[in-house]
Amino acid sequence: MRQARRAVWLDNMRMIERDVAMATTFDAEADAAYIYLAGESPVGGVTRTVVVEDQRVAGMVNLDFDSDGRLVGVEVVGAMDVLPQSLLDVLSAAGPRK
Questions:
Q1: CA 22, CA 36: separation in Å to the nearest integer?
Q2: pLDDT in tens, 12-51
Q3: Residue 31, by phi and psi: left (phi above 0), alpha (psi -120 to 50) or beta?
Q4: Which residue in 23, 10, 12 sits closest to 94, CA to CA?
Q5: What pTM was estimated for this model as a whole?
Q6: Nearest-angstrom CA–CA distance, 95 and 41
Q7: Which residues have C-beta within 8 Å of that of residue 23, sequence separation ≥ 6?
Q8: Hey, what domains does the chain have and what are their CATH numbers?
Q9: Helices (H), 1-98
């Protein structure tokens, strides 16, 4: 029973990793990741970007909003310093988006 639950858990984690990789990009050369919250091209595009910087945290986060004020994407600059290595590994294995 315990092994069956672990197998289901592992399957769920693989599905989550696949979905995250589909909704996220990572450019190792630029050390930047982007999390798409409204698809790759939100209707109306990004109309405002808010830069979030905190001296206590490595990197920088940019919040992208659409014309209705909805958060549509998050860019993480300095991603290798702040994102979990397991996520970076999944994103790197997924390769760049075309």
A1: 9
A2: 566 655 555 458 888 999 999 998 887 666 667 889 999 9
A3: left
A4: 23
A5: 0.68
A6: 19
A7: 35, 36, 37
A8: 2-94 (3.30.390)
A9: 2-22, 79-82, 85-94
